[in-house]
Amino acid sequence: MVVLDIETEDGQREALRRMLTIRAFDTKAADLFSDGELPGFVHLYVGEEAVGVGACSALESDDYITSTHRGHGHCIAKGLDPDLMMAELFGKANGYCNGKGGSMHIADVDAGMLGANGIVGAGPPLATGAALTSHLKGEDTVALAFFGDGAVAQGQVHEAINLAATWDLPAVFLVENNQYGEATPVEKQHNVQNLSETAEAYNIPGFTVDGMDITAVYEAVKEARKRAADGEGPTFIEAETYRYHGHFEGDQQPYRTEEDVAIWKDRDAIESFKRRLVDAGTITGAEFDEMKAEIDQQIEDAVGKAKDAAYPDPSEAYEDMFNAAVPEISDFSSGMRADGGEDR
Amino acid sequence: MSTETSSGTGPDRTKEMTIREAIRLALREELERDDDVFVMGEDVGAFGGVYEVTGDLVEQFGEERVRDTPISEAGFMGAAVGAAATGTRPVVEIMFSDFIGVCSEQIINQMAKNRYMFGGKTEMPVTVRTTEGGGSGAASQHSGTIHTWFAHFPGVMAVAPATPASAKGLLKSAIRSDDPVIVFENKQIYEQKGEVPLDDDFTIPIGTASVEREGEDVTVVATQRMVGESLELAEELAGQTSVEVIDLRSLYPMDTDTLVESVKKTGRLVIADESPLSYGTHAEVATRVMENAFYSLDAPIQRVGVADVHIPFSPALEEEVLPHGSDVEAAINRIV
Ligand SMILES: Cc1ncc(C[n+]2csc(CCOP(=O)(O)OP(=O)(O)O)c2C)c(N)n1
Ligand SMILES: [Mg+2]
């Protein structure tokens, strides 16, 4: 696999590829959801690609990330396989969580992806924990938490940052300020102008960067990663970005207008990165079109494979609760449910 | 139960509506009746709530009394406790009961304990509304049925409506109560319809169960979604087995008398509730019946619920773990 490192030309093309993959994956997920093909909820990352890819580009491959309910982009940025992600969205047995998790819980701990998360604000403490492991074991891995502007209002986010700051843990806290938590705009949730101002309270560096510019995100995270790895503790980064889709698919979005969205689309991160690479001669327009067509096909194929894949056997519902076997669960599935207790 | 719209006149007037509408009506009436009542939660205002329960209330009562909060369950749950102790009657929405973990401190060590610890010197008129239940592919962090935790915990009252009328009546009682009450709303039945009394003083006393259908052969004590499914089943079995269906509806305090009276008549009991089975709501109902009607039982008590697993995402798995009317039927067949 090509290494994601936007300081090299190969890495830049890879970054572009991952951004396009995220967009294609999530645009497809939107269609599938509106066609009633996907169960549950899906929260899409379209518009925010530069944040996930820029950040992961600054990480080493064995670094950890924690994610959110809007996690598909983080997964792809971290190098997860869209085939297995799509299978998970369909609830198929070969998905990342064997169908148990779905869109909101995709995880691949071996790849350093500690899980999308259905609980707003639950990721940062996990990143603090991964950073604690690194610290205790003297490893040089770093943990980066992606979380939303809304999550900044959660008590456990404050606690996680304070712990990491007080213990000088190798963590990076990256807020994706996409301007809304559900339907509520950021200024109705917080009393500061920039969320990065809160860093001052922890006596750690805080920066606000343009989240529509992959290089800006990359540079901020690169610097933060270096501080973390050098034992200087966490950094708080706020990336200003925007989600093009509703909070969840099906959201009527009464809280904003198409013009509001258009302002951000004009600054589209993929478009501007592509232009820069074309201008620099890193990629030609034709190569870009080819890359995009290839990715679109890859996502189509992922959907086809996911549709063809088998659902988990219903008996798997009773597996994975514990490492050990417990009779309460095995007895229920092996007979109690149908037959009742012995005295029936 | 009537499914027709019977408007009528006077205090007995009823109207057919969904559970969602019945809850909104209860909120509207109580906001109108008492200026101390206010509603608070995430996107309950202009957005109308994620499950569209609060709807247009903000238009009538304004942003002060239908307050949008940041995503800060611990903060606003605690604020509700503080506000209630000092003279208001907050109605808090926790979008999914799974999120109660985030604010459980404020519930268990503050809301539930303050009155007792302070020697009865404070009242705690907090109402918490929250959603439960699987069936929408929402996976383990958005599908739980957790009411047993709080029905178990001393100092909290817990109710769980199954019909539009009880949704209205129980919520109004909760808001008028000087004690903390958590209302557990199963999200799969928000669209379920039924007749609802329009009297704005219609309430259902907390601590009462309701015999929704009389029968002779077996008692089914059910909650939430399982009430409707048990009633349908009872209708199907009519002529063959006579099934009495009781909506437990108040988990704590529990209407032991109504349950015991029914089992003394039928001699058989099935308990259907979407909680995990171990240490659960089922166990509490069974114990009360055994303590009070043991010698009337003609067969072992049967439990219908979820195995001790979380609600999985994949439809193939979710369908497997959720209890249905067919499980109640199998349970009845084992003992009748
Ligand atoms: C503890 C908790 N509270 C509420 C929710 C419901 N919820 C899901 S996403 C969301 C908005 C999150 O906003 P933000 O953190 O800005 O992330 P974004 O959706 O904008 O990416 C809310 C309130 C939740 N999942 N968990
Ligand atoms: Mg946001």
List keywords for this structure.
heterodimer, A: 344 residues, alpha/beta, Rossmann fold, 2 domains, five-stranded parallel sheet, two-stranded antiparallel sheet, 11 helices, 7 strands, globular, B: 336 residues, seven-stranded mixed sheet, five-stranded mixed sheet, 14 strands, binds thiamine diphosphate, binds magnesium ion
Polypeptide structure, described:
The complex is a heterodimer of chains A (344) and B (336). In chain A, strand 2 (143-148), helix 6 (155-166) and strand 3 form a beta-alpha-beta unit. The radius of gyration of chain A is 21 Å and the shape is globular. Chain A has helices spanning 9-34, 49-57, 72-77, 82-89, 123-137, 155-166, 214-229, 258-265, 269-279, 285-308, 327-339, and strands spanning 64-66, 143-148, 171-177, 180-181, 184-185, 206-210, 235-240. Chain A contains 11 helices and 7 strands. Chain A is of the alpha/beta class. In chain A, strands 1-2-3-7-6 form a 5-stranded parallel beta sheet, sandwiched between helices. A two-stranded antiparallel sheet of chain A has the order 4-5. Chain A has 2 domains: 9-312, Rossmann fold; 313-344, no CATH class. In chain B, strand 6, helix 7 and strand 7 (181-186) form a beta-alpha-beta unit. Chain B is 37% helix and 21% strand. In chain B, helix 1 (19-33) runs parallel beside helix 7 (164-176), helix 8 crosses helix 12 (325-335) and helix 9 (256-266) packs across helix 10 (281-293). Chain B has helices at 19-33, 57-65, 73-85, 104-111, 114-117, 147-152, 164-176, 224-237, 256-266, 281-293, 315-321, 325-335; strands at 14-18, 37-41, 66-68, 89-94, 127-132, 157-159, 181-186, 193-197, 210-213, 218-222, 243-247, 250-252, 269-276, 302-306. Chain B contains 12 helices and 14 strands. Chain B has 2 domains: 16-197, 3-Layer(aba) Sandwich (Rossmann fold), CATH 3.40.50.970; 210-335, Rossmann fold. Chain B is of the alpha/beta class and 336 residues long. The model of chain B is unreliable at 1-5 (pLDDT under 50). The chains are: A alpha/beta (344), B alpha/beta (336). At the A-B interface, helix 11 of A face helix 3, helix 11 and helix 12 of B.
